[in-house]
């Protein structure tokens, strides 16, 4: 299995790893087949120009190199984005930003966007 340099970089030196105390939203997803488990925490702020945006984001992931790399990349892609922009991030955006994933590992990028979207939904539910 061949990984891109970006995947290796994000696996060996993950960005935004950890948790957030008192997060505004939390999303947790897992894949029972491979055992990967991802948890994404978000902090949301409001700005006059941007509206609601993700001011901070962290992840905790138990899983393979691809799962950790996709978790790291989705946090990079979502940080600073408005809630609406972050909801539009797809598995393909994650895989493309990582310069590709082996086909057998594409499900990891699914988990990362699902975890992000769950964190945003959790935030929206808490808000209402």
Keywords:
44% helix; 128 residues; globular; 3 strands; Sufe protein. Chain: A; alpha+beta
Please, could you describe this protein's structure?
- The chain is an alpha+beta fold and 128 residues long.
- The chain has a single domain (5-127), classed as Sufe protein. Chain: A.
- It has five helices and three strands, in the order H-E-E-E-H-H-H-H.
- The chain has helices at residues 5-12, 65-78, 83-87, 91-97, 106-127, and strands at residues 25-30, 37-47, 51-62.
- Strands 1-2-3 form a three-stranded antiparallel beta sheet.
- A hairpin with a 6-residue loop joins strand 1 (25-30) and strand 2 (37-47).
- Helix 1 (5-12) crosses helix 2 and helix 4 (91-97) crosses helix 5 (106-127).
- The termini are far apart.
- The model has no long low-confidence stretch (mean pLDDT 92).
């Amino acid at each position: 299995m061949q990984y891109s340099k970006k995947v290796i970089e994000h696996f060996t030196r993950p960005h935004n790893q950890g948790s957030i105390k008192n997060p505004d939203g939390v999303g947790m997803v897992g894949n029972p087949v491979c055992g990967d488990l991802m948890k994404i925490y978000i902090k949301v702020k409001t700005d006059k120009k941007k509206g609601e945006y993700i001011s901070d984001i962290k992840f905790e992931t138990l899983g393979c190199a691809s799962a950790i790399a996709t978790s790291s990349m989705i946090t990079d892609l979502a940080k600073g984005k408005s809630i609406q922009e972050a909801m539009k991030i797809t598995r393909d955006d994650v895989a493309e930003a990582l310069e590709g994933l082996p086909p057998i590992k594409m499900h990891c990028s699914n988990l990362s966007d699902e975890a992000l979207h769950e964190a945003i939904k959790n935030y929206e539910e808490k808000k209402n």
